[in-house]
Amino acid sequence: MRPDVSICILTWNRADFLEVCLRELFASITPTSEGGLSREILIMDNGSTDATGEILAQYESRPDVRVIRQRRNLGFSAYKRLFYHARGKVIIDLDDDILKFPRDFDKTLVDYLAIYKDYGFLACNVVQNDKTDGNRPRDAKYVPDVRGDMVVEEGPTGGWCSAFRRKDYLLIKLLIFLFRMDARTPEDAYIASLCFRLRKRIGIIKDTVVFHACGPMYAREYNHLDREIEKYTKGNNLEFAQRFIDEKSN
């Protein structure tokens, strides 16, 4: 039977983030046996050389977890393989640097997609503080779309914790496989852009907030500065790479 959701996580050499992310993820979702959604959690190790394998080994025995290991780093193109394995009616794209989730965030994403049928890509909101903007654009780019007690801010989204329907994904799957993803145009940005081909809108769920620990200051705190520099340099996003280089030199 097809699960309600597939939670998809791509990780590479961010063991310190991943350890917290997975711990908080499993603390936030209600088990299926207790009334939660049926789900599968797909974690792809994109050729990590740090302690990622040891962390994933702690979860592999869970019946709802499937670990997929790549021998080498495929960059953002690994998302193509990851999404290919997803069987859920709704696919949740989750970054490994999400370190805090609201309770049953997966059910919230599913419920919003059920009400906001004209949207093809919805993301959770993000914590913004003195260390990070959560990678969310400024408020001026959004327009509220209120439906009962639900509020979506229509505008640019990110893949930090986002969801789309499998049936929509199947319509754009070929375009996803043909596109060369990189740090300038990652999986979330491309899928969101394809929603317009499906005549679908995109946006952020205002009151469902995750902690997205992105940016140079958290990379330093969690010992991932060198990894971020390598990622953005190889991905030809030198502007982003320079932000982490600057933090390292401080």
- What is the name of the CATH architecture of the largest domain? Alpha-Beta Complex
**Low-confidence parts:** none
User: In percent terms, what proportion of residues is strand?
Assistant: 25-35%
Q: Helix fraction?
A: 25-40%
Quaternary status of these chains? single chain
Radius of gyration: 17 Å
Number of domains: 2
| CATH class group of the largest domain | Alpha Beta
Task: State the helix count.
Answer: 9
Total strand count, please? 10
Biggest sheet architecture: 10 strands, mixed
Q: What's the rounded overall pLDDT mean?
A: 95
For the terminal residues, how far apart are their CA atoms?
Answer: 53 Å
Q: What does this 3D model show about the protein?
A:
Helices cover 35% and strands 26% of the residues. It has helices at residues 15-28, 52-57, 78-84, 105-115, 166-178, 187-195, 216-221, 225-234, 238-249; strands spanning 5-11, 39-46, 65-70, 90-95, 98-100, 119-126, 143-147, 150-154, 161-165, 201-212. Strands 1, 2, 3, 4, 5, 6, 7, 8, 9 and 10 form a 10-stranded mixed β-sheet that branches. The longest helix is centred in the first third of the chain and has 14 residues, at 15-28.
List keywords for this structure.
250 residues, 35% helix, Spore Coat Polysaccharide Biosynthesis Protein SpsA, Chain A, globular, 10 strands
At a glance:
The chain has 9 helices and 10 strands. The protein has helices spanning 15-28, 52-57, 78-84, 105-115, 166-178, 187-195, 216-221, 225-234, 238-249, and strands at 5-11, 39-46, 65-70, 90-95, 98-100, 119-126, 143-147, 150-154, 161-165, 201-212.
